[in-house]
From TrEMBL, chain A:
It comes from the Bacteria. Pfam families: Oxidored_q2. Belongs to the complex I subunit 4L family. It comes from Streptomyces fragilis. Its EC number is 7.1.1.-. The chain crosses the membrane at residues 70-94. Residues 119-139 have a biased composition (Gly residues). This is NADH-quinone oxidoreductase subunit K.
From TrEMBL, chain B:
It comes from the Bacteria. NDH-1 shuttles electrons from NADH, via FMN and iron-sulfur (Fe-S) centers, to quinones in the respiratory chain. Couples the redox reaction to proton translocation (for every two electrons transferred, four hydrogen ions are translocated across the cytoplasmic membrane), and thus conserves the redox energy in a proton gradient. PANTHER family: NADH-UBIQUINONE OXIDOREDUCTASE CHAIN 6. Belongs to the complex I subunit 6 family. It catalyses: a quinone + NADH + 5 H(+)(in) = a quinol + NAD(+) + 4 H(+)(out). It is a multi-pass membrane protein. The lineage of its organism: Bacteria, Bacillati, Actinomycetota, Actinomycetes, Kitasatosporales. Gene3D superfamilies: NADH-ubiquinone/plastoquinone oxidoreductase chain 6, subunit NuoJ. It is found in: Cell membrane. Its EC number is 7.1.1.-. This is NADH-quinone oxidoreductase subunit J. Keywords: Cell membrane, Membrane, NAD, Oxidoreductase, Quinone, Transmembrane, Transmembrane helix. Its main location: membrane.
From TrEMBL, chain C:
It comes from Streptomyces fragilis. Belongs to the complex I subunit 1 family. Its EC number is 7.1.1.-. InterPro entries: NADH_UbQ_OxRdtase_su1/FPO. Keywords: Cell membrane, Membrane, NAD, Quinone, Translocase, Transmembrane, Transmembrane helix, Ubiquinone. It catalyses: a quinone + NADH + 5 H(+)(in) = a quinol + NAD(+) + 4 H(+)(out). NDH-1 shuttles electrons from NADH, via FMN and iron-sulfur (Fe-S) centers, to quinones in the respiratory chain. The immediate electron acceptor for the enzyme in this species is believed to be ubiquinone. Couples the redox reaction to proton translocation (for every two electrons transferred, four hydrogen ions are translocated across the cytoplasmic membrane), and thus conserves the redox energy in a proton gradient. This subunit may bind ubiquinone. NDH-1 is composed of 14 different subunits. Subunits NuoA, H, J, K, L, M, N constitute the membrane sector of the complex. It is a multi-pass membrane protein. The lineage of its organism: Bacteria, Bacillati, Actinomycetota, Actinomycetes, Kitasatosporales. This is NADH-quinone oxidoreductase subunit H.
Length: 148, 179, 321
């Protein structure tokens, strides 16, 4: 098989993931696009491993490390761990802010909140609203019903 | 065997067909406004990639892909979507305002990457005959003879992720933060 | 040409088994449950002790109206039963019936392939629960997914233990390598695998997400007719698959006291039938576990047991070469 086929497919999938990360607003959709990018990388690793472990059969014996396949397995495991943590963060944010929209997660900026939930937003000088003070002030405005 | 670019082998044809399906479902997944459909099209894309791994004779990785990505990662994503109230039908806030810029960046990156890759590997072929290096036995031997240290480090990383996720998802019941 | 014919015949045989064996298990369940509860069960359909009850049920389901709720997501709703059912057909393809090549398709990655494909079945329930536009369905779907994800881990670990003992993940290879003293050696793993598999199938006492006194029917509440029948078929096909896998992995598959290799298929089927009887027996014996008890059982009891079994297997393999 010509090496260009998997390499080109991998590049196109990666760029699809890039579009997803930049264009999507929902945090979980962004995570999905990151998964697409990781999968594109995996395809590349597997294709190159298939090429190198056979091309090297006649040449260097120490190229039987199967590094492409081993790295693919590690990438899959790391992606699973990342999804777990990422979703825990998204759910914690949803519980606190009431939305999973990443364009609206701007609590650490100095200006007050755009939806007029004035309260503590502007007067908190240090802007450390990401701690326990922030959710207290925004709790009245945006707290959704607690999910299970 | 012939190495013609204009006379593709059966494996190449299968690879291209499955690749078209995979790429198509990935594009639908990042552009649709129905949130749960995006996750389900991602399942199709990941399944297509598993088939590609089988075509590249990496069987163990193909089944790991099915088990972990389709069986666990997508289920977690669906959980996340359902717990954050994903609506049936189109969701108005799925896409942000910078879609045009994102499309431009993605197309430019795609053009650059594809050109570089095709130019660099114009005369490289993968030999897919012979003993498969992707069987469970071969992968296991290579993993546990040469990659033991990264393997152990990975297990520590997974433990850290597990502990972190549990700590993050505990409800703060005893803190008086309801001002 | 004969190669293609061979593959087609095998696929056909597995398809016939897939359609017939779950019905046999279902009819057995009717009768066994009935007799254990002091009643008779179906007696009329087919004349002789109601043997055609499930055939009559199938005809009833086929001729029902195909209703999709108004607010539901049509395509996902209609696709969910297929996604829940097909994995079991794929797994049945790789379970060996006898020594040699008495298997639908000999897959090198054997048990790993089987468990990976079974993990995809979770998506069917999740799709069904969400697409039904029904709060109870959504709750049931989430519970189902949580349960199935939790119990996949003990199953994988127990299967890994026996794969370690055999030195191969191929199902034919594992059944080939079975010795009689594996039974006490792997007994903990066998029990963990069986219990975890029961929970994967949402069979009582693990049927909290689909029990009608809890949540109507969970993720499958809005389903009628043939799609509902597919979900039920998935449960009984799952029983056949689980008992078949336990037989091949932990009970020696086709090995029996007499008959040699020719009667291998009989011993496999006999052991599978005995395990199916145990599954039915458990249904009428134990009350169901609450959702949190269910999760606790998996994470704090089955997973440590499976890990201990792997440790024991490893130690024995190293000490006794």
């Amino acid at each position: 098989m010509h090496l260009a086929y998997p390499a080109v497919l991998s590049a196109l999938l990666f760029c699809t993931g890039v579009y997803g990360v930049l264009a999507r607003r929902n945090a979980i959709l962004v995570l999905m696009s990151v998964e697409l990018m990781l999968n594109a990388v995996n395809l590349n690793l597997v294709a190159f491993d298939a090429w190198l472990s056979r091309a090297a059969r006649s040449a260097l014996p120490h190229d039987t490390l199967h590094s492409g396949q081993a790295l693919t397995l590690f990438t899959i495991a790391i992606a699973a761990a990342e999804i777990g943590i990422g979703l825990a963060i998204v759910l914690a944010v949803y519980r606190n802010r009431g939305t999973a929209d990443i364009d609206r997660l701007r609590d650490t900026t100095e200006r007050g909140r755009t939806d007029g939930d004035g309260g503590d937003g502007g007067s908190d000088g240090s802007g450390a609203g990401a701690g326990s003070a922030g959710p207290g002030g925004t709790a009245t405005g945006e707290k959704a019903e607690a999910t299970a | 065997m012939s190495h013609g670019f204009l006379s593709p082998t059966g494996v190449e044809i299968a690879f291209v067909l499955v690749g078209v399906v995979t790429l198509g479902s990935a594009i639908v997944s990042v552009t649709t406004r129905r949130l749960v459909h995006a996750a389900l099209w991602l399942v199709v894309a990941l399944g297509g990639l598993a088939v590609e791994y089988l075509l590249l004779t990496a069987e163990f990785i193909a089944w790991v892909q099915v088990l972990i990505y389709i069986g666990s990662v997508v289920v977690l994503l669906l959980f996340g979507l359902m717990l954050t109230r994903a609506p049936i039908g189109r969701s108005p806030d799925a896409d942000s305002g910078n879609r045009g810029v994102a499309l431009g960046v993605a197309v430019a990156a795609a053009a650059a990457l594809v050109w570089v890759v095709v130019d660099a590997f114009r005369t490289t072929w993968i030999e897919l005959d012979g003993a498969s290096a992707g069987t469970t036995k071969a992968t296991g031997e290579s993993l546990f003879q040469h990659w033991v240290l990264p393997f152990e480090a990975l297990s520590v990383l997974l433990l850290a992720a597990l502990v972190g996720a549990i700590v993050l998802s505990r409800k703060r019941a005893a803190e008086g933060d309801e001002r | 040409m004969t190669d293609a014919l061979d593959v087609t015949l095998r696929l056909l045989a597995v398809l016939v088994a897939f359609l017939v064996l779950p019905l046999v298990v279902g009819q057995t369940e009717h009768k066994v449950m009935a007799h254990m509860q002091g009643r008779l069960g179906p007696m009329y359909a087919g004349g002789f002790h109601g043997w055609a009850q499930l055939v009559a049920d199938g005809v009833k389901f086929v001729q029902k109206e195909d209703v999709v709720p108004a607010g539901a997501d049509r395509r996902v709703f209609q696709l969910a039963p297929a996604v829940a059912l097909l994995p079991y057909l794929l797994v049945l393809l790789v379970i060996p019936l006898g020594p040699g090549d008495a298997v639908g398709q000999a897959v090198d990655a054997g048990i790993f392939f089987a468990l990976a494909v079974m993990g995809v079945g979770v998506l069917g329930s999740l799709m069904a629960g969400w697409a039904s536009a029904n709060k109870f369905s959504l709750l049931g779907g989430l519970r189902t997914a949580a349960q199935l994800l939790s119990y996949e881990l003990p199953m994988l670990l127990a299967a890994a233990s026996v794969a370690m003992a055999a030195g191969t993940v191929s199902l034919t290879g594992i059944a080939d390598a079975f010795e009689w003293w594996w039974l006490p050696w792997q007994i903990v793993g066998a029990i963990v695998f069986f219990v975890a598999g029961l929970a994967e199938l949402q069979r009582p006492p693990f049927d909290m997400p689909v029990a009608d006194s809890e949540i109507i029917f969970g993720a499958y509440t809005e389903y009628t007719g043939l799609r509902f029948a597919f979900f039920l078929l998935a449960e009984y096909a799952g029983i056949v698959v689980l008992c078949g896998l336990t037989t091949v992995l932990f009970l020696g598959g086709w090995q029996g006291p007499f008959g040699g290799d020719g009667l291998g298929w009989f011993w496999t089927l006999l052991k599978t039938a005995v395990l199916a009887f145990v599954v039915i027996w458990l249904r009428v014996t134990y009350p169901r576990l609450r959702e949190d008890q269910l999760q606790k059982l998996s994470w704090t009891f089955l997973v440590p047991l499976a890990l201990a079994q792997i440790a024991l297997t490893g130690v024995v393999k190293v000490v006794i070469p």
